[in-house]
Amino acid sequence: MTQANFLRNPFPEAKELPSGLPEGPARFFNRELSWLSFNWRVLDEARNARVPLLERLRFVSISAANLDEFYTVRVAGLRELVREGNTSPSDDGLTAAEQLSLIDADARRLMSAQQGVWNRLRREMEEQGIMILSRSNITRAEEEFLRKHFEDNVLPVLSPLAIDPAHPFPFIPNAGFSLALELARETGGLQMQALLPIPAQLQRFIPLPGGQRFLRLEDLLLMHLSSLFPGYRDTGHCAFRVLRDSDLEVEEEAEDLVREFETALKRRRRGSVIRLKITRGAPDRLRRLIMEELEVDSDEVVEVAGLLGMADLGQLVLDSRRDLLWPSFNPRVPERVRDHHGDMFAAIRQKDMLLHHPYETFDMVVRFLQQAARDPNVLAIKQTLYRTSRDSPIVEALCEAAEAGKSVTALVELKARFDEAANIRQSRRLERAGAHVVYGFVQYKTHAKISTVVRREGDTLVTYTHYGTGNYHPITARIYTDLSLFTCDAALGRDATKVFNYLSGYVQPEGLENLSISPIDLKENLLALIAREAEYARLGRPAAIWAKMNSIIETDVIEALYAASNAGVKISLVIRGICGIRPGIKGLSENIRVKSIIGRYLEHSRIVCFGNGHGLPSKKARVFFSSADWMVRNLSRRVETLVECRNETVKAQITSQIMAANMADEAQSWILQPDGRFVRYLPDGRDDLFNCHRFFMENPSLSGRGTAGARDVPALTHSAD
């Protein structure tokens, strides 16, 4: 079945699997293999001729960085289970050892494919005048430039190390990149092994005069070995790169959470090696030395015939070559904010305001807090911080507010993976400014995205609230699709206040009006909503569920969706990454369809719409957005929010525009098959395929005062009202 037919007939005849109806573990796809499948889709964008050349290079870099993180966290965890002798199966029936075997085979194929794609892109780049040179291609003038660059910018930060009993093998940190050398003295023939760790702060690709010819850093070092090891010549060398276990363990009874995390970060840096990548053809003695010193087995070694550290290819996405990048796009300022001359509070007072990032600028979130910091009528600000930028304007606004004497409370999540150190720095900065900094729960991550501003207006206090699906991170907000709801609705303000009291004082919230939170009631309420939609279907009423998120793997939720499908609910899911659902199987999931959208922007918003007995899209639908994916960690081990939208304009914007466009997308969509394959349809010569990213970029009428209406989106065959 092609994707085009699938879109015209969203719920085709279900398939019967040769083995019959899946039972038990066979009802679910494996989480780790599903994640690898997602990264294959990311890499496939680098093959997509519709994508500009340097953007395709960026996709290679992203796929490599993704794979590194996958190994340092997920594979590291599986290896720990194997070391402990744990043979318990996952939900899909595979033990940790079985998963590792399948992961290793697929990941090696993926790494080989990455090299193949890079080689093709490199040739295309050469046709566009962008050259990655070998040492033999350097001109005399470039040699002189490189000599000076090496002496001024590289040599001062290098530490060449001889390896002998007096100079033991050094520690190589996670993602550490090094050259290993066999050297012989020019006179006398004395042999020596040496190591040259390459600091991560050095640029991997050195631009030569003109800006479009580059030399790899490792080649520059090999050109100047005589400056590093005078009197020796190179008799053999290789490059290698190390990935280490990067998961954190924190004591639940830690009295000083910040200090405990600082200690844990040091342990992470010294985690056991999970994977060693080494250039193919490395001298045997060097290879054995590296494996022995890093304590890795042969199955943890990957020999690379090509480029090590492919995540660094992002450095070659040149801003100077706009002709090889996506056309520039400036996010829109909402019309209502412009009408009120930039006054966020006045715009929000008029009515609830939903922004769809990155099409509508995240600067409105920053402006909201900056205005709050400077407004003499604002008394208090409360803010969750999970991930944010290094020089965060949001943290700056919170500090400004605290220094101005306002009551500022910041919930800083120290357990945000790979951002722990940055969040420790931000928390100390906030404390110095006079803010109240809290860290939530030791056993739960706080992943909810909430901000409240309490403002005196006449004789009353009004709470302005921001709920979001994405992090308070101005940089990632340029490429992540997320939702922001600004409201001064009193009920939503009361709900937010109760959540903050829960985070700061462990007071479990009662009487939430428009909000569900995990780990308390979000999962329970979600399951009830799914069951209610199934009951509508049994009564013969139009029943539908639309949901969009990053991942779905929680088995209770999947089983509830299977039950709803069997009751006749039409279920359409947009799942970017991990998906444990088997769609389109007769007797199990014949009314479930799943697609994954991979394109210019990273789909990050979490949305769920219930037809409420009227089908979708519908004015009577129940519409929610959330900070949570449908995974065990989000529903059971994190503080997350599920916010119901009651404003009719906001509901219409979500169902008739955002979700309808995602459902209708053809150009960027992959359709999940019952056997786990994702199928794509990109025929040559077809430039009219509906692209939801382009649709939102090209339709300014979608922002501002209200909704443009479902007429702007290709009709969906299963809509009803």
CATH class of the largest domain: Alpha Beta
Low-confidence regions = 1-7, 250-255, 703-711, 716-721
Averaged pLDDT, please?
Answer: 90
CATH topology title of the largest domain: Endonuclease, Chain A
Identify the CATH architecture of the largest domain: 2-Layer Sandwich
> How many individual domains?
3
Number of strands: 27
State the share of residues found in helices, binned by percent. Answer: 25-40%
What's the N-to-C terminus distance?
Answer: 29 Å
Given helix and strand content, the structural type is: alpha/beta
Q: How many alpha or pi helices?
A: 20
- Principal-axes shape call: globular
CATH 4th-level superfamily of the largest domain: Endonuclease Chain A
Summarize the helices and strands and which ones pair or pack.
Blueprint lengths: L2 H6 L22 H15 L7 H31 L12 H32 L3 E3 L6 H15 L6 E3 L13 E9 L5 E8 L6 E3 L5 E4 H7 L1 H4 L3 E13 L12 H13 L3 E7 L4 H11 L6 E4 L30 H5 L4 H7 L2 E5 L5 H12 L3 E8 L7 H11 L3 E6 L7 H14 L2 E3 L6 E2 L3 E8 L2 E9 L11 E8 L2 H16 L9 E4 L3 H17 L5 E6 L5 H13 L2 E6 L16 E6 L4 E2 L2 E5 L11 E5 L5 H5 L1 E8 L2 H17 L4 E4 L5 E3 L11 H7 L23
Parallel strand pairs: 1-6, 8-9, 11-12, 12-13, 14-25, 17-22, 19-20, 20-21
Antiparallel strand pairs: 2-4, 3-4, 3-7, 5-6, 7-8, 10-17, 11-15, 15-16, 16-17, 18-25, 19-23, 21-26, 23-24, 24-25, 26-27
Helix pairs in contact: 2-3, 2-4, 3-4, 12-13, 13-14, 16-17
